[in-house]
Fold each of these.
Amino acid sequence: MSEVYAARRTRLRDYCNAGGSAAALVSRPANVRYLAGAAPHGAVLLLGRTEEQDLLVRAGPTADRPTQERPDEALRVQTLPGADGGDPAVAAARLAAGQGADSLAVEEHHLTVARHRALGSVAPRLRLTGLGSAVEQLRVVKDEEEISCLRIGAEIADQALGELLESILVGRTERHLALELERRLVDHGADGPAFPTSVGTGPNAGRPGHRPTDRRVEEGDFLSVCLGATYRGYRCEIGRTFVIGTAPADWQIELYDLVFAAQRAGRESLVPGAACRDVDRAARQVLDSAGYTEGLTALTGHGVGLEIDEDPQLSPAAMGKLDACVPVTVEPGVHLPGRGGVRIDDTLVVRPEADGGPELLTITTKELLAL
């Protein structure tokens, strides 16, 4: 993997050189991990003018947290001395100035104002410029090793969800079910949940971002579940909706079939070169045409990777087009206040038609099951 991380740093170095920056300071944890193979708590990456000058700067032992991550073995690591370890970003700016750099590109969207000022005070002759979202853009297209991690995470999430569906659900609370799902994720090899697990029953079902409550599962409820697993840092997502009882009501079948049709339209639009807003439009217009404009989510999906919500965004105002090997979610839903709703959520990888089209990572059935 050392060659992979070195190649990523080289691409960023070329970007910085083209922009006139001699060095770069990467502080956002997911970006540090992407370029260095690990992101110990508070660590930053100093990207020098040459590969030999690249350095991972981390705080002293007392400020660190236990981690199983191991940085790229070809990358030099410097641990700051002292009880509190100091600020790695400030130390890195001082080191950049010592290496003879006259400018330093920083992730202004991640640094606080106070931290930005501190960088300028320790290296006043160092011109600070903005790195923008350069690393985030490098992260959009995944290599096959990254996709393999997402695939394994999806298998874990599918397994945890499948086991839950085989248990007795009536009478159990949303909170209890969410905790059980997260435990099962870890039991099956996940680093942990990719985000707080959402379980909604009855009027809470299908509500975007719903946090589990003490409401108990009842006969006739819609039950919506949204969970994800983190595996080697990579995060996937799956969402499904079920009915509790012997048979769903007519309105539940109608709403579910509509959301399923919208989700299928979005999935089928995932081809290299497709405009992100067109994917959103394909799913959204199915629901719009049925009169559910007011109950729709703000976006149809988003990228996933080292963070659960990455670029690209599949929304009405999204810019840009999809590339091959970009993992995204497709997650349309409708929530009817006081009644509940439906959400169907998959993680897929954009693939060209010659390779079989979009690769579905989350394979739990989308049939409307009565549990």
Amino acid sequence: MSEKTLQHRIDGPDDAPVLVLGAALGTTWHMWDRQIPELTRHWRVIRFDLPGHGGSPAHAATSIAELADRLVATLDALGVERFGYAGCNIGGAIGTQLALTRPHRVTSLALVSSSPRYGTADAWRQRGVVIRTNGLDPIARTAPEHWFTQGFAGAQPAIVEWAVQMVRTTDPGCYIAACEALASYDVRSSLGRVGVPTLVVVGSEDQVTPTTDARSLVAGVPDASLALVPGTSHLAPVEQPAAVTELLIRHFTTAWHDKPGPGGQAAIAAAAPKPQIAPPPPPQAPPAAIESGLAQPEQDRGGTYEAGIKIRREVLGDAHVDRVQAAADDFTGDFHDFITRYAWGETWTRPGLDRRTRSIITLTALVARGHHDELALHTRAALRNGLTPTEIKEVLLHTAVYCGVPAANSAFAVAQRVIREETTPEG
């Protein structure tokens, strides 16, 4: 298997229309096992594993677009031109990406426990820091409480253990790469271009992708309906397999386009009723602009500002940059504009050094000059850029020789505090 394709499994008749199922982050294609007997009565079902999940080779992908490209390459190799698609969690993101970039390939779409933007970029990158430091065990141990309702978890200990083991056996590097992919994923402004019938399925007790996220999808996609599964948390296909299976069959048998595209197959005709449609939320007014020098449209500031603000957010975090922008006024706005353009837009973006190396250089310079507030900020940035606590320790030991022991002593105190804060697992 090449790095451009995904490990996959095919079930169902060879001459049936194709339905592709995408799994959630930290799971394998087995999360759909209990849907397969019914779905394969109608469709040729193709399931795939994310890189480093299950037995899939650990060829990491750091964007949803790259994962979608690999799935398309896999389907191309199988001779599949047109297909229906259902995905859960990150699998839903891949399906939305396909509907936006390959509208001629996707006949209809089901988004299960999905969102147009999964949490915040800071939260996903923070998770990467925790995994890099502690491994996947903390994530694995807390997965059941995020995926299942308390009642289901208590009644199904074998499924809980199965879920823990799925996460624990995932390749950490590929999981971190998937976190990076979700950190940069945001299709809220593009949902109007999804041109296929779409079913949005959400568990009423889902705290990972709550009903507000589902309603955002329904409000944005022109031809979308919402199905709420009562008493269910995030992994709805596992917790309520019969209900989810029925919803998928109803949706795909009624929403599938009757006419196949080039090389595709016509779907079977059926007259099953559509799921109950929940009314979309009322339109929301856009947030008020920040009244400062940083509130002007970024596209009016030139390429170096756009590149700079992007990498500044990725390295320092949205929360920090948002605080800086909110506090900026006529007196400080030009200074922060200067930093964004020249430090981040022209220096950090240069191809000669990677971000890890630039973090090492930055830490050393800040230790040498005794800039402790900036050192704390850039210790967090170094963790986000892939340095481990052990590597940061080695950088500070090196500074003791060349910058002086007192400077390094102060730096160790700052870094120790930040590393404890950033790498302590939740729970």
Amino acid sequence: MTYDVDALRAEFPALRAGTAHFDGPGGTQTPAPVIEAFTDALSRPLSIRGTGLPGEVNAEAIVGGFRRAMADLLGAQPSGIVYGRSATQLTYDFARLLARTWAPGDEVVVSRLDHDSNIRPWLQAAESAGARVRWADFDPHTGELPPSAIGDLLTERTRLVAVTAASNLIGTRPDIGAVSRLVHQAGALLYVDGVHYTAHRFVDVAELGADFFVCSPYKFFGPHHGVLAASPELLEGLRPDKLLPSTDTVPERFELGTLPYESMAATRAAVDFLAGLGDGSAGDRRTRLRSALAAVEEHEASVSTPLEQALASISGVTVHSRAADRTPTLLLTFDGLNAADAYRHLAGLGVHAPAGSFYALEASRHLGLGSAGGLRVGVSPYTDGTDVERLLEGLTSFLRDSRTL
């Protein structure tokens, strides 16, 4: 089946405003079926989950549908899918929980490639437990984080390694499978930030070897919240603080309060929408998702490759996204010019490419960019050639106008 980007774009009401969106790494736009699922959930009877009245049955069906959809997307078990307000909130919750088992002298490994949400919670949890933090550095020239950068830090006292599956700043995708083998040989747990990864590549948590894997549906057409996947057996051994009357069943014991059914319904719809981008109705949802993510990768490469080639020919532009395996996410800086000014210039032309470090503060500093970062250009499944033309024209006029001042 031919990937029809025009038909896809027609499903997104927000695109009618005319903005060329390169802000997908911060969150994609929302397609009509996902919006409809959100409003449909609120339009039907809803109440605390149960098996009697329509509102109870609807709530129960929504929660079950959400867990099954996310399990299909991530290659996990429905009973290992935990809802959270955000990936940051989930990581803080699990960092505090896991740190209860750490002792002074234990070690935690974090990566400078990561978003701060997969760094700061572990640093703070380690401090509270008296554990030592060890830093894995990526190569600022290539953007690569080889498995050895983590493997060389592992000792018999390592309790957990936290690492991203894809950098939200420069797109680098480390070899998580190789990392997981090293981590597990050392007897430690692996916590993987898959927020940026899940939007661009088919996920198999078991194949990656992640003990914990977090993502955010709003990066792949869904509503704003987080999801954590882990094996139910691993979750069974963790005892979070909770209210006495609340259920102790996994995964519900980690979800405090009444769940937002409308967001869960919209997330299920987002997974179904994503599954429809491949070979139509061929196979079960997991099979269709594999096909869909392959089609998405192929389309994004067809857009990002000529974009990168064009940027390479523009004098004064430095592209910091250089890893061999990475998402279609580019970080740009400009000789003698401020990336924030480039953002404002592009915004005036209806092109959204934001500037900053995007919470990847350690990565930005390690690249020599301080806290300012650069201009981030992210290609999404609905990005087309016209968007790229507008971006390139905008950058060219920004550089031309800035040099004539």
Amino acid sequence: MDKEKKRTYLSLYILSGLIILVIFISLSKGEYILSFQELVRSIFRYQPNSDTDLVVFEFRLPRIILAILVGFGLGIAGSIMQSITKNGLADPGILGINSGAGAAIVAYMFFFQGLLNINKNSLWIILTTPLIGLLGGFIAAFILFLLAKERERLDSQKLILTGIAINSGFGSLSMYMSLKMKAQDFEMATVWLNGSIYNANWLFILSILPWFILIIPLIIRKAYSLDLFQLQEPVMIGLGVKVENEKWLLLLSAVGLIGACVSVSGSIGFIGLMAPHMARLLVGLKHRNSLIVCGLLGSFFMLIADFIGRTIVAPAEISAGIILSILGAPYFVYLLVKARV
């Protein structure tokens, strides 16, 4: 076994162990503290207690699973964006993809949810929301790539500046629509736009699972293509790669993941920025090794952020998106300074 594979397996084992540890801590800690024995009895159905079951299966476990899925999806989406754009500062949040998906979902809530008089937790709303997020994210990505192109190539400086402008524009549009909502709906929309999974339930998990089942295997199959994006386009064409086809297929896959994640968690930033860099440091540049590591890093960050937000000011909560912004902003500044040196 070569050194890269050893590093990959070691990273996978360590990250999996850390995630299991955080899952246990998240299940047991909070306003209602559970012992190890109570957790085991509840999960394995040995002398279960109704109060414990309510806390574990209705409140905490759906939230934990959703955090794992959202972090995993955003981490892999960030890796794709950085590979396609050849820019280490690219992130679905910074480039405006999250905001585009979020604005589309807010518009959907604003224009249709009240009109149809459907409950916000109805199966129809929950299952169709990722599709709306996909549409908004793809529109944002299309505008981004259109404006950042120079002589049929992506300009790295233009990409970041255009992404910031798109992020600001769609964010302002979302805020404007949320201000037009009723007071109760506005409060819900504001919490959601800050990035939170406080309202997680099993239906949310059901709604995004098909996207992960369809898209993740496709992305893993395209790991070699992602490696080739490190080369110049003429070299890729010389190797027989249909660059534009591969680029748009991978972009659509990334936007699909982002739309699904944003539909249940709101706008979560910086996971897609930090996870790919750390994965490359741990296991190298090959995407065959780094993609899953990148996803697990995203899950770990999301679990940590949600746990801190849920417990640090309990019984009140701080959105996971805000916690991640506090942790991720200094890292973004560091990368920005490093890129200019």
